[in-house]
């Protein structure tokens, strides 16, 4: 009867009991192999075409001394010089005033193209874009002038562009206001004059009555 109960035990319990009786321990399962550490991928090398180029300099080019004549006369008196304002809207004198009688021919100091020729606030104005003066180009302005040129005309150095108007101005006498700009920056127009134009003409000895010439 005891044998029958022993045979009726489940197979799993029978195996466990047998192992316990013999003192054997189950062998552990082999450890799984450790996963290899990921190898870091090298940083991508930028293509030469994607490397940013250095930012170009934003310093404007200097004013070249390219004038071939004064706007009026040969060496006119400067009634009022260039007084750059401290800020864009501050008081100052954005140009120079040159003394000359009304009707005096007004000349372009250098080669260029007429940007404007007409009336501004009742005063005649001529504005020229000077050739070969960088980017943006230099622009000269002359007022008050009765223009003899029109917009788009190509102008040669010392070419007349009009006559000085007798329109009242801030000068104590009739004068030409001569201005210079590069984009929105006002510059000294006298810097366009080379040294030989800025100097006075050499003195000449006049004949004296009764004294023979040497």
Describe the structure.
Helix content is 11%, strand content 25%. It has three helices and eleven strands. The strands form two sheets. Strands 1, 2, 4, 5, 6, 8, 10 and 11 form an eight-stranded antiparallel sheet that branches. A three-stranded antiparallel sheet has the order 3-9-7, with no helix packed on it. Strand 5 and strand 6 (138-143) form a beta hairpin. The radius of gyration is 47 Å and the shape is globular. It starts with a helix and ends in a 16-residue tail after the last helix. Residues 1-9, 11-22 and 201-214 have low confidence and may be disordered.
Question: Can you give keywords for this protein?
Answer:
single chain; 214 residues; alpha+beta; eight-stranded antiparallel sheet; three-stranded antiparallel sheet; 3 helices; globular; disordered C terminus
Q: Judging from the principal axes of the Cα atoms, what is the shape?
A: globular
Major sheet description: 8 strands, antiparallel
Q: What is the rounded distance between the termini?
A: 170 Å
H-E order: HHEEEEEEEEEEEH
The low-confidence parts are: 1-9, 11-22, 201-214
What is the average per-residue confidence, as pLDDT, rounded to a whole number?
A: 77
Oligomer: single chain
Number of strands: 11
Percent strand equals 25-35%
Please estimate the helix content.
Answer: 10-25%
- Enumerate how many helices there are, as a single number: 3
Counting helices, strands and paired strands, the structural category is: alpha+beta
């Amino acid at each position: 009867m005891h044998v029958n109960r022993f045979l009726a035990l489940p197979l799993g319990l029978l195996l466990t009991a047998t192992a316990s009786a013999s003192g054997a321990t189950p062998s552990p399962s082999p450890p799984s192999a450790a996963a290899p550490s990921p190898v870091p991928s090298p940083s991508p090398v930028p293509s030469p075409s994607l490397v940013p180029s250095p930012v170009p300099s934003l310093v404007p080019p200097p004013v070249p001394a390219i004038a071939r004549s004064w706007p009026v006369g040969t060496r006119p008196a400067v009634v009022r010089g260039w007084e750059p304002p401290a800020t864009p809207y501050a008081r100052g004198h954005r140009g120079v005033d040159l003394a000359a009688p009304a009707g005096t021919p007004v000349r372009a100091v250098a080669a260029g193209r007429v940007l404007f020729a007409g009336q501004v606030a009742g005063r005649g104005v001529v504005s020229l874009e000077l050739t070969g003066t960088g980017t943006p180009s230099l622009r000269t302005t002359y007022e008050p002038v009765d223009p003899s040129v029109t917009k788009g005309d190509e102008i040669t150095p010392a070419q007349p562009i009009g006559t000085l108007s007798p329109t009242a101005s801030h000068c104590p006498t009739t004068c030409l206001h001569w201005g210079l700009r590069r984009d929105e920056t006002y510059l000294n127009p006298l810097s366009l004059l080379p040294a030989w134009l800025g100097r006075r003409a050499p003195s000449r000895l006049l004949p004296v009555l009764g004294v023979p010439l040497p």
